[in-house]
From TrEMBL:
InterPro entries: KR_dom, NAD(P)-bd_dom_sf, Sc_DH/Rdtase_CS, SDR_fam
Keyword tRNA processing applies: no
Superkingdom, taxonomy of origin: Bacteria
Name the UniProt record assigns to this protein: NAD(P)-dependent oxidoreductase
Organism: Sphingopyxis macrogoltabida
Length: 275
């Protein structure tokens, strides 16, 4: 009998480490950030770190309200405001729904973190149904288009967009064909959107995590044996933690990276890739 998917962070055999590892220094003071997929994993770590640095957070989640509420309470514990926005980012109307609520409640948008994603392992390309293929692209890349389109009128000079791509874009992944293809699209989107928006003073960058211990892999249906050895093929011989990835997003969101756009950071356990 197949083990039920572990949908919540608390369901995992070992809790991911989301806690910021240092005191804040107001690098995002009084800014407003949207974090898609902010209920758990990398999104949770980013939301809490941004809050520690002074930002109010819009946590966008698809269905896991319990994890989203937990993340909101963690943001509140940092002394900042969190709002929850339930939305399926892959739907064409989601971008407008998210932006309208954020602007209504928090009045502005300074940082957009496109982090939401899904994956469904398949060793044979013939096992990827048209429905799965379309769904993976809708969530992972179409949703970024929809949200940027909706947010752009509210993004002013100095705003930042950070997209989550993956090491699989650079290495490939025989068992994640559709997922890896979307990550290649995200990297191209990041570079092209940077060229498109740079004259408006809006910077666009990306983060390409390696194997990070989050609910994404067990939730996506990865076999138990692969989950057990997850991350061991990296030079560091272990998976990363969400709080080892979140600082890359913070760097790209704040003025520390004011001369950087169209680039990708690689928190991946020491794997050397080009680009």
């Amino acid at each position: 009998m197949r083990t039920p998917p572990k949908d919540r962070e608390s369901d995992l055999d070992r809790a991911p480490k989301w806690e910021p590892r240092y005191a804040g220094s107001d690098r995002l003071k009084d800014k407003v950030a949207i974090v898609t997929g902010g209920d758990s994993g990398i999104g949770r770590a980013v939301a809490v770190l941004f809050a520690r640095e002074g930002a109010d957070i819009a946590i966008v989640y698809k269905s896991n309200k319990a994890d989203a509420e937990e993340t909101a309470s963690l943001v509140g514990a940092e002394g900042r405001t969190a709002i929850l926005v339930r939305a399926d980012v892959g739907k064409t109307s989601a971008g407008r729904t998210i932006v309208d609520k954020v602007v209504s409640k928090l009045k502005r948008i300074d940082v957009l973190v496109n982090n939401a994603g899904e994956q469904h392992p398949a060793d044979d390309i013939r096992d990827i149904s048209p429905e799965q293929l379309q769904r993976t692209f809708a969530t992972n890349i179409f949703g970024m288009f929809y949200l940027v389109q909706a947010a752009l009128p509210h993004l002013k000079k100095g705003a930042a967009i950070i997209n989550c791509t993956s090491v699989t874009m650079y290495q490939g992944s025989g068992g994640l064909l559709d997922y890896s293809a979307t990550k290649g699209a995200i990297t191209a989107f990041t570079r092209s959107l940077s060229e498109n928006l740079i004259e408006k003073g809006i910077r666009v960058n990306a983060v390409a995590p390696g194997p990070i211990w989050t609910p994404l892999n067990p939730r996506g249906g990865a076999p138990a044996e692969k989950v057990e050895s997850f991350g061991e093929t990296t030079p560091m011989k272990r998976p990363g933690e969400p709080n080892e990835v979140a600082p890359s997003f913070l760097f790209l969101a704040c003025d520390d990276s004011s001369y950087i756009s169209g680039q990708v950071l690689h928190p991946n356990g020491g794997t050397v890739v080009n680009g």
